[in-house]
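Hi support team,

I'm filing this because I wasn't sure whether my run with magnesium ion finished correctly. The job status page said complete, but I'd like someone to confirm that the output block is well-formed before I use it downstream. Pasting the exact inputs I used:
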Amino acid sequence: MCICLGPLKSGKTLLLRNLRGDLIDDAHYVVPTNGINLVTVKSADKHFDLVIREVGGSMVPIWKHHFDRVYKVIYVIDASNLCQISAGGVLLYSLLLEPKLQQARFALILTKMDQSYRQMRNEALLMLHLQRLKKEVRQEITVIEASGLTGQGVNELREWLFDPITLANASRPKL
Ligand SMILES: Nc1nc2c(ncn2[C@@H]2O[C@H](COP(=O)(O)OP(=O)(O)OP(=O)(O)O)[C@@H](O)[C@H]2O)c(=O)[nH]1
Ligand SMILES: [Mg+2]
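And here is everything the job wrote out:
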């Protein structure tokens, strides 16, 4: 199971829509995920499907009920909102300490890069204490800069999702 988490309104749903291949235009509309949102994404060659479970940012208190059999975590942070980053970092740290997620791989997505300055990305990583964090936890953390609006980083995220081990366990789509 692959799970997508992150603070409220950090950009999870829009990013997953982009990953699914939805057309995102200026008139796009997203509603807060008050519960769970299941999104099926395809590998680059379209031969494999993967279901990603987004748990809304308003559901933080019950995130932990969704950790069984999770082997990948997409953790989305709004890089354009430095005020939210510290709180997002604390949440990330609590996930990394979660016993059920010790074997999981993490993708830390700095999204809304279309609204962020290059410097904000560096500040975001500093505020998250990422270098220190990487030394303290056992999980592998891959950082990807992205935008659910422009599609930046989406292919990189797809490659991370469909690595050879995941492909071996993924189901073939029905023809
Ligand atoms: N400019 C810009 N806006 C974005 C981006 N991603 C999301 N947004 C906007 O940010 C707001 C929240 O986006 P969502 O995708 O609903 O955020 P979420 O993390 O799913 O929120 P919850 O489900 O409530 O936890 C919406 O108004 C989106 O249009 C992005 O990459 N760039
Ligand atoms: Mg959402």
